Predict the structure.
Amino acid sequence: MIKKCYIILAFTLVGVAASSQSNTSDTTIMPTDNSFLIDTTIDYGELFQDFEAFMDSILSPQSYFLATISLGKSFYNFESKTNSSTTPLQKFTWSPMVGYYHKSGLGINATGYIVDDGVNKNLYQSSISPSFDYLKNKAIAAGISYTRFFTKDSLPFIQHL
């Protein structure tokens, strides 16, 4: 019990010492003329018109098709063929994606995840995502999406880190 009292007393005294410090005033000299902060070469009226046109194009319902591919490095644990150990290796991962979004708000996209294991390229995981976007009211925009992943059972690597 006495040990707990000493610990509480020690933390209380440290807190009192820390709160008793005073802040010194800042000695940085600030310029009184702030005109250098304003960029006079930008036409803000034109910038906001472009931004308004961009927002109108996003919020107006349109049907469109989308296709992308991304490339990145990831670490994988590969099983050794000679013994039961695993070897972590950094490999490139390709992720192609296709999607279609209808002006009614319904959309669907599919993504594949491909890794080169040294022998061939393996599509080790894929996903499909149905979605719905509510864009009828310009005051509110909302959406919901669900993603279902499908993973191959037999892979030359154990797990994605």
